Amino acid sequence: PNECSSRLGEFSHYCPVSLATRYELIDCSEESTLKYTAEYRARYYKMAGQTELDLFLENAEKFVAPAAPNRLPENLPRCVSKAEVKQMFPKELSFRGYCPVTYVLGNKRYEALTPGSKDHVALFADELFSMRDETSLEVFLRQPWRFSEISLPAKLPPAKISQDVNTLPMLGYMEQSVAKALIEAMTSCSDFKPKYPYVNAHKSALLYVAYHLKAHNPKATEYSREKYRKKLEKYKQHCQLIKYLGDNMNRRYRPDSERPIDFNYKMDEFLALKNHPLPSS
Q1: What is the Cα–Cα distance from 43 to 9, expressed in whole angstroms?
Q2: What span, in angstroms and rounded, lies between the C-alpha atoms of 77 and 136?
């Protein structure tokens, strides 16, 4: 590897085949082995993969100087960390912080204007560009010239303003904080239609929703969620006792031998709930 680094060709760690065939910058510096490396005229050339290596070995002359159709640009892009971005202050993000990749690939439509992330920033031609995600960053690094010379449209999306949900009106607060959890709990309750033994339908529904909220609370610990998932499952089993007993009972007495094997157990369980009509929290 040390000899390879000292004898790299004019494309350094970049794949000459990708640059020649697709005009893409594929950085192979992360590849620590020489699996996709070829030696030509006492120089080493790194390839992006087996396909590129096969093409290079077939006709290496057309991928290196002077026959190579594309030379390695002087300005090369690189990833920039959050710390580096802070050190470059007051340098601002180009393209007003929007992701140039999603905009270009979205045919430069208004809907394709997506805010970039400070976790995915690249430096190219002394300008900073922020991308939406890791995939968009990789696309930019391969062809930065395709995305660095575009202009913003005259109409831009309204700026996002952060607001503390605690300052919102009650309806707004609930919409931003618990609406999704409530809808899921109420939908599940509507599908299940709980009726707990010795408790009216209204209280049965409220108890079901309460257990569901606690069992799926994203801010609770996994231990707490698991605890209430088990309680919810037990609650549903008790609710199903009424239907089970109703389906397996009639006016005529039936001896134990003619009853379902778990009938007596569930009957005892049902009667025991009479003294404890509400489940423990």
Answers
A1: 5
A2: 14
Tokens of 5: 């680094």
Q: Rounded distance, CA 127 to CA 12, Å?
A: 23
Sequence-distant (6+) residues with CB within 8 A of 165 are: 172, 173, 176, 177
Question: How many Cβ atoms are within 10 Å of 258's Cβ, its own excluded?
Answer: 9
Cα angle, residue 38 at apex, residues 32 and 40 outer, rounded to 5°: 135
pTM of the full structure: 0.59
Which ranges constitute the DSSP H helices of 73-163?
82-87, 100-105, 134-142, 144-148
Question: How crowded is residue 1: how many other Cβ atoms within 10 Å of its Cβ?
Answer: 9
Question: Token pair of 235, please?
Answer: 């609650």
Distances (CA, A) of 33 to 42, 49, 60, 187, 266: 18, 12, 20, 55, 66
Could you tell me if residue 39 is left (phi over 0), alpha (psi between -120 and 50 degrees) or otherwise beta?
beta
Q: Which two tokens stand for residue 105?
A: 């690939």
* Strand pairing report for 121-124 and 43-46: unpaired
Q: Indicate if the pLDDT at residue 277 is higher than 70.
A: no
Residue 273 vs residues 125, 192, 269, 277: alpha-carbon distances, Å: 75, 20, 7, 5
φ, ψ of residue 124 to 5 degrees: the values are -150, 130
The pLDDT-based confidence of 1 (bands split at 50, 70, 90) is low
Q: Give the model confidence (pLDDT) of 21-30 as tens digits.
A: 999 999 999 8
R_g (Cα) of the chain, nearest Å: 33
